[in-house]
Automatic annotation (TrEMBL):
Organism, as annotated: Pseudomonas mangiferae
PROSITE patterns linked: SBP_BACTERIAL_3 (PS01039)
Tagged with keyword Flavoprotein: no
Gene Ontology CC annotations of this record: cell envelope
Signal peptide: 1-23
Principal place of residence: other
Keywords in alphabetical order: Signal
Superkingdom of the source species: Bacteria
Family: Belongs to the bacterial solute-binding protein 3 family.
Protein name: Transporter substrate-binding domain-containing protein
Record Pfam families: SBP_bac_3
InterPro entries xrefs: SBP_3_CS, Solute-binding_3/MltF_N
Localisation per UniProt entry: Cell envelope
């Protein structure tokens, strides 16, 4: 999911060190707007790969859990304000985020890749991209990669949700979108994405995705143990296979 100095400054301001006390009921924080990883279904319930993995971890820890949704920009401050106990929202592990939260072991590995209209001559080298309008979700690895590598080359448009980036791509307001490969893969399967395709090779291919907890919270190790358990007993594979025809771990 999802270097972001504004987020981290806000997170630092609200940082609450210490334990979740490992309550009988744990609250899972997620965005609910990043299918297939986290979403709100037709019945209004939060679901998706992240949420199912988080619930499987709760089951291994023999604790009840409930899901709380949060805007992406405020999700780390909300964790540190104790609105939930851990974040399962396709969050990339970055050095800057490590200043505000602790991370578990990675529960999947992602890549960043461009998508654009099938009919477009869209090459991903800097010379070819010069002057194009490229969209990405704000406060994500994709948005930061564009700012770090394409500032002054392309016109970068950042969106509050991934869905809004796709809406502008579908309507022709941006030339392409950079996002997590697996999220792009899901959108390309949809009716809205049928006229679009991946362009070029992934520009970043070792994006580790993990669960975030408050600094110093022993819940981290409990989650790591539970993650090992669901991988060993096949629960992880069952959830993976529900969403993807390939292994994302």
């Amino acid at each position: 999911m999802k270097n972001y100095k504004k987020i981290l400054l806000a997170a630092a301001a609200s940082l609450a060190f210490g334990s979740s006390a490992f309550a009988d009921t744990l609250k899972i924080g997620t965005e609910g707007a990043y299918p297939p990883f986290n979403l709100i279904d037709a019945s209004g319930q939060a679901g998706g790969f992240d949420v199912e993995i988080a619930k499987a971890l709760c089951a291994k820890m023999k604790t009840e859990c409930e899901v709380v949704t949060s805007d992406w920009d405020g999700i780390i401050p909300a964790l540190n304000a104790k609105k939930f106990d851990f974040i399962a929202a396709s969050m990339s592990v970055t050095e800057e985020r490590k200043q505000a939260v602790d991370f578990t072991d990675a529960y999947y590995t992602n890549k960043l890749q461009f998508i654009a209209p099938k009919a477009s001559d869209f090459k991903t080298d800097k010379d070819s991209l010069k002057g194009k309008v490229i969209g990405a979700q704000r406060a994500t690895i994709a948005g930061t990669w564009l700012e770090d590598n394409m500032d002054g080359v392309v016109d970068i448009k950042l969106y509050d949700t991934q869905e809004n980036a796709y809406l502008d791509l579908a309507s022709g307001r941006v030339d392409g979108v950079l996002a997590d490969k697996f999220v792009n893969w899901e959108w390309l399967k949809s009716p809205a994405g049928k006229d679009f395709e991946f362009k070029g090779d992934p520009v970043f291919d070792n994006d580790k995705i993990a669960i975030a907890v408050r600094k110093g919270d022993p819940l981290r190790e409990k989650l790591n143990t539970a993650l090992k358990d669901i991988i060993a007993d096949g629960t992880y594979k069952k959830i993976n296979d529900k969403y993807f025809p390939f292994n994302i771990y």
